[in-house]
Amino acid sequence: MTDGYEMPRSARDELEGIVYFPRMCDKIRKHLAGTLHPEFHTNLGLGMDLWTCQFLGVDYHDLKARILAGATDENALRWARENGVTRPDYEKAWFNAYIKTRGFRDDLAARLAKRKKEDPKTDRADILTFIDYIEIDEGRSI
Questions:
Q1: Do 24 and 48 touch, CB atoms closer than 8 A?
Q2: pLDDT digits (tens, 9 = 90+) for 78-96
Q3: Rounded distance, CA 71 to CA 83, Å?
Q4: Contacts of 134 (CB under 8 A, 6+ apart)
Q5: I need a surface site. Which of 3, 9, 17, 22 has the fewest CB within 10 A?
Q6: SS3 assignment, position 7
């Protein structure tokens, strides 16, 4: 899939205990630089990007504008916390569990099973969640 493009950071990466946020920031920057594979373009701001912004209580496009203006991941998260929703630690734990387990015996399980079957490298019994799928699809281990 690379063809001169760069893979985004791992979906498992965390910033201040929030899983996925660094990956979303990285995808935004890579898209601007023209190094994000076109396969990712359609879902920018959707799926896990959207859920992360909803958890933070900010609009994806507003956060994206901050990142494109030069905000580091840390500055972008600080901005989101200042302009979004303050969450207690237990809600952060719920959110992280939600993101980390999407596709495992939930409403996305059938979609994950279909995606796994599309490529022999991802048609594996040990891929239980979408994050597992992303990691293997992008050449990382689970």
A1: yes
A2: 999 999 999 999 999 999 9
A3: 15
A4: 10, 11
A5: 3
A6: coil
Cβ atoms of 49 and 60 within 8 Å: the answer is yes
Backbone angles phi, psi at 14, to 5 degrees: -125, 155
**Which parts of the chain sit beneath pLDDT 50?**
none
Residues in a beta bridge with 14: 19
Tell me the C-alpha distance between 56 and 99, whole Å.
Answer: 13
Q: How long is the chain?
A: 142
**Token pair for 118:** 């599309």
Q: At 74, list the tokens.
A: 């840390």
Question: 43: which residues sit within 8 A by CB, 6+ positions away?
Answer: 49
